[in-house]
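User: I'm putting together a teaching handout on how multi-component assemblies are represented. Below are the sequence lines for each component of a complex, exactly as they appear in our records. Could you produce the 3D structure of the whole assembly as structure tokens, so the students can see both representations side by side? Please keep the chain order the same as the input.
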Amino acid sequence: MSWKDRILVTKKILAMFKSFKFPCFFSTLEKVFRVGDSGVKVYAAGPSEAKDDNIMGPLTDPQAEEKLRSLIKNTSTLTAKEGLLRQLRKKLLLHIAQEEKFTKLMFAETGDRLSIRVLSNIAQGFGASLAQDTGFSDGRYSEVMQLRPMKDFRAKEVAAYLRFSDVEYITLPTLTTMAPTQASIDRLTEAFVLGLQHSFPSTVSTICRTAAKICPAADMDQNSQDCCVMCEALLDTSVTGISALQSSNFSHHLTEQEPSALECMADSSCCKNSDKTCDSSSCVFSANDLSNELCYGCRLILREIDNIESLPVEILRLAQRRRNRHKMKNDIQEYLLDDE
Amino acid sequence: MHDTLTLNENMPTKCKRCGVNANLKRPKTGDALCKECFYYAFELEVHNTIKGTNLFTSGETVAVAASGGKDSTVLAHVMKLLNERYNYGLTLMLLSVDEGITGYRDDSLETVKRNQQQYDLPLKIVSYGELYGWTMDDIVKQIGLKNNCTFCGVFRRQALDRGAALLNVDKIVTGHNADDIAETVIMNILRGDVARLQRCTSITTGNDGFLPRCKPFKYTYEKEIVMYAYFKKLDYFSTECIYSPNAYRGYARAYLKDLEAIRSSAIIDIIHSAEKFEIKKEVKMPKQGTCTRCGYISSCEVCKACILLEGLNRGLPRLGIGKTTKARLKKMQDVVSQNAPVPDKQATSSCICAATDITTTEPDIGTKLNNLTKVLDF
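Assistant: Of course. Below is the structure of the complete assembly, with chains in the same order as your input.
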């Protein structure tokens, strides 16, 4: 969408929200690249006058917009693009929630949407965080609790309710609107679940009920501090014993020649961190290093990104800090008394 | 990871591992490989799975569940090969089940008999007709084409166990591959079957009380099994069961195939997801006990096979099919455990097993077992 179109849409949405009389905040997705940049305002408060044509003024940021476009362009498949956008959007929302000191963040996902998410997440390797991604509450971020109060409602019920209450709503196109079913995993799953629901009316509710009975496997250390830098889920990538991951790595290893060309992040800004142990050798940060700080599902997304430097700097910085901490821990492992 | 390779006619693609001209592109990793390197990778991966999970101990007797299809044919071939190459120390034999489906099963059994000669392994065939008194043809005539897979699946599992017990084996190996497991995960989520969801990613199931069944092909793609059989020119039978088109599993399978087309690693990703979650402890799971009629493992008083059989014998073919409320289930159990007299001709229709206190009027267990052993080929 062009900048003008975006302004129009935002104005329309803000006008709708005026009727709710809540304080309103809004931002643009490319601002996720500015998270962590000190002094840059990442979001704006809703205007009292919806007639103001320049409501998006403070958020204009062509550089960030260009970065977002290039990141999406650098991602090869639609599945990975959708996954990436989802993670970035969540990151931005959580950042704003933290800044404004909100303790809870509610999402409007209905039962239909969540049942599609269940299958789609399983297909993309996000099984370990299934309970958090699709359950009622998600406590990954200690400061902001994510909630899904509409998870037991069906899309049709919601539509009927809006109709009877005379409430307006708008629909915006996404990356896969009008796309063929094979365009991406999300789109395929949507067609599958809704098609099955048509012939077997209990499909959506059964999927949601089943997902509610699932929790992460016991062998994942719940107290571990290791989280994915993209989605903040517990890392599910320890390779001990035979597992799908081990078998996958084994297969690739069997026919590997040289590891593929590594991306180096020669950005010297990492030395400016307060992390005083940083020395020149650990400044070289490769795609492999980033991959180690991601969960299985996010790793699959990373594989489709050509150049890791197109990711938001904050993510890369976080990954680097974590990697350095692991190195530190390894160095002093034998002297540590507690398993922290 | 980019899976696409451009094949230039002037410059054939080279095998990634050894550099000679490549014959194929591996479905699992997308690498171009020559035949020999593919065999190497395929066989080594299965060996890695077997060794890593300590699937077998030396000296065990293992029955290979053989249906004549691609999975079991390749399984027999690879098990024999690895057993010799890496000295697993196993005694192998083939076990096959005849469901009594004319046209389909007869042909596949011929394939199994050929396999037996090719691999020089002893073979045992058990049939539904002898075990239960009903062939699948008879069952379908009675109940039609919906839910017949339920009957066949339940009966087959018991048939394999009984056959294996007769052969005195320690373990059964089946040819379930990665696609099957991924499909089962999806199906159990769609069905809400948490008990099965918990168990389906274990590489060995059935440890408590009955013969363990292993799946060495747990991480092997179906496409790679076909590719292996194709290049090695292994003989197998490849038609769909004639009674299967309406099975619910077909939906899960179609979804999986579409997923694989979008992202080839989706199959392993699903298995990874399923390995990383489990059922919450508070969820009530069916307890595993034994059937009061025949002693087979069961989560209810009377096992599913007994219920289904009783239904068939009394002309109540829908007994045991579909969801049951607690009240109906209790009624069903009562019906079966009352042991009402069975209609005349069906004297051989109850489960045969080692239990000695079945109070029906069919020939005693000893005679039945003797009759069965006459079917043995070795």
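A couple of points students might notice: The longest strand of chain B covers residues 91-98. Residues 145 and 243 of chain B are 6 Å apart (CA to CA).
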